[in-house]
Batch of 3 targets.
Target 1
Amino acid sequence: MLISFEGIDGCGKSTQIQLLKDYFDKKGKQVVVFREPGGSAISEQIRSILLSSDADIHPVSELLLFSAARAQLISEKVEPALKESKIVILDRFYDSTTAYQGFGRESVPTEKIQAINAIASLGNTPDLTFYLKISWEESKKRTAHLEEDRMEKAGKDFFERVISGYDFLSKSEERFIEIDASQSINAIHETILMNLPQG
């Protein structure tokens, strides 16, 4: 099973991913977690380029770098884990590219990004995607104590477009489970568990 978590920074992805991993661990399931971009040596190197606060990266270059990191992660880590019947949890996947580089950066038309996503994911699609939705204002409150990376410095208008992208995906993709991330940690976790396949 392939599960992805999506949402803007501060939505609580990391917390919910750890809680879900703990849940599966207690069930005796084999589970691995990877972050995007990253998860493999090459992908982590690309991550450092993408998130460097002083880098001036063209939107199309940004799109292709994220996609390159994804293809490496999928081929090197995700597909082998799935073949071993492990549960794979991804902290972001190609929906982030649609939301951030498509809607946020407006780099290329959405349909072209979706074609690139299909290539970069090597044809893999999440079984479930949990979209933890918060407002930009709430995101800023939750991340105020953290140093901003290059993506986080993009500003309110950018992130409002990103949220619109996620909202679009939530309405158009059946695998999306949209969750109000302003709720308590336990309430969100319970909603996630309720939406897992039975068995």
Target 2
Amino acid sequence: MRVDIFVDVVCPWCFIGKRQFERALAMRPDVSPQKAWRPFQLNPDMPAEGMPADQFFAAKFGSAAGVEERRKQVAGIGSAVGIDFAFDRIARQPNTLDAHRLIRYAVKRGRGDAMVEALFTAHFTAGRDIGDRVALAAIAGENGLDAREAEVFLQGGEETAAILGEDQEARRIGISAVPCYIFDRQYGFAGARDPEFFLSILDRARSGAAQPAI
């Protein structure tokens, strides 16, 4: 079974969805899907250097009170699935192109799942700038990859066109929000659903029951 998972590593719901999917898989130990991490930039027009997080969220949600209300909501849901969101540590909202490139780099070296987890954790619980190439290389080194080799890769342009092309293709086929999961290119849905919903799709996909993308 193949599962294409469209995420952005600055999306808290993607992190929550990852946890929920993992909980569902723990309930189906006989199912070992092939996960394909696919890029989707929530903020494709973000400057390469990112921008102050407070400025970004104030523009997005309209007021400091609105930002705080949404953060509390997300933090409460995150806590229930084992994520300690630390939004107060996030000083900059990054451009995630290089983070997606690093995921692709890690996938080719058998460390894709670990890198996705590491990037979510670095951004949301440690407040590290995952738009900074030096920081990204350090994260690579902390998660089973060669930091210097990763930095050389990031300083080049390899995988940039592929990432941008996949992002555009995702939008062309109608993906407008993440996380988005597509099972065996047949069964699709968006959102950080609960484990029971994931289980229903896993079981349908495993049995081959007809179900249109949703």
Target 3
Amino acid sequence: MFSRAAFVAIALFWVTMNVLLWREEFGSGRNGVAEVPVATVIERVLDAPDASLLTLRQHGKIIGQVRWTPAILEAASSTNSPESELPEGMVRTPIGHKVDLDLNLFGEDPSSRWRLMSHLDLDTNQVWTSFQVRLLQRPNSWEINGTAGSDAIQLIFDDGHSRNEQRFSIADLSRPSLFLGPIAALIPRTLLPTPGALNPHQMASGFRWTARNDWLRIGSQRVRVYRIRARWMDRMEMNAYFSRAGEILRVTFPDGITLSNEALPGIGAEPREAAR
């Protein structure tokens, strides 16, 4: 009799816990699309264990490929420190994050093939400490470097024969013709920023960010995801979908430009928002 009662109690406990977990994860109504702090989603993205390999399309045509690689920065430790014996994959003392982005634009001729590589270091508060951006179109290359605490931005141009280097202040970002100088003539007009477009204060004030739980259809399945929506100056909108582990799944931009994760072939369909 006691064994039967114990079995029934354990079974009821197991069923109850599963129902509660199911409601928490898949419950209907507004809880299914509840807003979450943007910082929470960004932290998941920065802590993602794997890189995201994405296909870049415009109006359905493949025009490039993007590799997004986040990683946790760790403090250096001596070989005699107990932290040096931690198992592989364990983080010792995190001091921030780093993000590498590698973009390749395809083209039928060399003049339309571009590669952009960027590196960003962040502290534990997700504030940038340094960055490097390189734009390549052989034989030309452009490189921009910056470090937090220093008002100087370094710009290097190399055409394969000569190297030109200059420095400008962050305030000069609002006047591209001033800091680019003669190099501006060598940059394709479509890539040139408009006056004031790079002003950090103006850009920051124009953005509106929201994050929420949502659903994304992958093949025949609906998968629980995070979605970040960014609106700039109430004119342009971007939507980014991330797995619960922080991996990039899909990003949509204006003018029919999309990024989709190569590991998920059925993700090309337009996402369907969860029912309210």
